[in-house]
Amino acid sequence: MPPCSTAPPWNALNRRGWPWPGAGKECDNIGGYSIIYADPPWQYQRSKVQGAAENHYPTMSIDELCALPVAEIAAPDSALFMWATFPQLPEALRLIKAWGFNYKSVAFVWLKKNKKADSWFYGLGFWTRGNAEICLLATRGHPKRQAADVHQFIISPIEAHSKKPDETRDKIISLMGDLPRVELFARQTPPGWDVWGNEVEPTIRDFGTICPKEGV
């Protein structure tokens, strides 16, 4: 598997709506987030799937994702919780390594139900119908689990396109404790979380040290 490019493509990303590092507010936790929660906007090779995603948000290539300086905001002992789709699993594992973490397990499996009917969501799929999504767990250093009673399954209805269940955050805090935490590619600003994304006001001012230059 080829390594990720390390060229930070901030200008191209900013033109597509992603805030470049330095666009947020002052934050005291740079280099000290014990919990990083991410829902990357994966690009797909199949045009039908890619087109559906782009209708809702700007996607990012694997090289663009790898170039994000996540390692710079992670504490020496920290955990990464990252949503991944099954077709993008190889890219997800590659991204975990690029961000300086080691894959450990599947933290959560979201079994999707329909919005209104009490029945399973009938998802897309080139083989079986996809109605489950996984949140991978990776670690850096030696973070400690704080609870042994957090279950893997999340059973809840689908909401807005690509929006993940809110209870995921509660499960993460139950598992790891009330530690400094940040949500990347966030779509809302939950209490107690710093956030970065194109649908929120970023609360990370110095997400990396490389910012776009004028005229580039």
Automatic annotation (TrEMBL):
Pfam families: MT-A70
GO molecular function, one term: methyltransferase activity
Biological-process GO terms, alphabetical: methylation
PROSITE patterns: MT_A70 (PS51143)
Domain of life (superkingdom): Bacteria
This protein's UniProt keywords: Methyltransferase, S-adenosyl-L-methionine, Transferase
InterPro entries: MT-A70-like, SAM-dependent_MTases_sf
Family assignment from sequence similarity: Belongs to the MT-A70-like family.
The name this protein goes by in its record: DNA methyltransferase
